[in-house]
Amino acid sequence: MNPETALEQVRSTPARSVYRRVLLKLSGEALMGTDSYGINRGTIERMVREIAQVCGLGVQLAIVIGGGNIFRGVAPGAAAMDRATADYMGMLATVMNALALQDALRQGGVEARVQSALKIEQVVEPYIRPKALRYLEENKVVIFAAGTGNPFFTTDTAAALRGAEVGAEIVLKATMVDGVYSADPKKDPTATRYSRISFDDAISRNLRVMDATALALCRDQGLPVKVFSIRNENALFRVITGEDEGTLVHL
Fold first, then answer.
1. What does the pLDDT read at residue 4?
2. Phi/psi at 191 (nearest 5 deg)?
3. Contact call for residues 64 and 144 (beta carbons, < 8 A)
4. Over the chain, what HEC string results?
5. Does domain 3-250 have CATH number 3.30.365.10?
6. Is residue 112 within 8 Å of 132, Cβ to Cβ?
């Protein structure tokens, strides 16, 4: 199904978004699909279809993207590196992913802008909050690259920070699992998925929803987090329309 068909399906249904503006956190690994590294074309095209569906509901969408699908290929060689240097390499990987996603969205008929926390003005524009807000008001997808622009901070923290800065109503964390579990479901077959859990419980139980800095920032800003699996077809659409998908982390 192409993005135009997806948009027509949305227009012909009574579905409505429960959010006006959201921040979507995409891991770099999510772009790999079944590949061991890099960007799987079929996977990124499916993501574009789902993003087109969400945009068709009138949702203002910002995206923070990781770089694990690229950086993991050089990670063994970076093991003895200075931490700050390795982190800057990871930030550059997120810029590459952001450009790839922007191009795929453009081909799918969705207008997008990339803003980078690192200044690479020959390639992407720098992060400027008022411009990002204007793009969102114009219903353009805004992709935030290069994390926070600082080493020692994860892209989870960047998602929490940018979400708060642009006034997102919720952070949607698209992962490889379908929510937050009481234990690692790969190791413990008795692990159960939470439908809802408070920030304090998630932090005290060390459930690794996000890194501690990001989770505390979302809690302090009253910014809920929804964790869901990007592997589930149309999961993003179900989250946006308020269906029972994934785990909601709330105050």
1. 55
2. -60, 140
3. yes
4. CCHHHHHHHHHCCCCCCCCCEEEEEECHHHHHCCCCCCCCHHHHHHHHHHHHHHHHCCCEEEEEECCHHHHCCCHHHHCCCCHHHHHHHHHHHHHHHHHHHHHHHHHCCCCEEEEECCCCCCCCEECCHHHHHHHHHCCCEEEEECCCCCCCCCHHHHHHHHHHHCCCCEEEEEECCCCEECCCCCCCCCCCEECEEEHHHHHHCCCCCCCHHHHHHHHHCCCCEEEEECCCCCHHHHHHCCCCCCEEEEC
5. no
6. no
The rounded distance, in Å, linking the Cα atoms of 210 and 217 is 11
Entry pTM: 0.89
pLDDT in tens, 203-248: 888 888 888 899 999 999 999 999 999 888 899 999 999 998 999 9
Tokens for 23, please give them: 């921040």
Q: For the chain, what are the domain ranges?
A: 3-250
The answer to whether 19 touches 59, Cβ cutoff 8 Å, is yes
Q: What is the mean pLDDT of residues 151-160?
A: 94
Question: Residue 166 contacts by C-beta under 8 Å, 6 or more apart in sequence?
Answer: 21, 23, 62, 129, 132, 133, 136, 142
Long-range CB pairs of 105-108 (<8 Å, 24+ gap) are 105/48, 105/51, 105/141, 107/48, 108/2, 108/3, 108/45, 108/48, 108/49, 108/51, 108/52
DSSP bridge pairs for 247 = 227
| Tokens linked to 96 | 């590459």
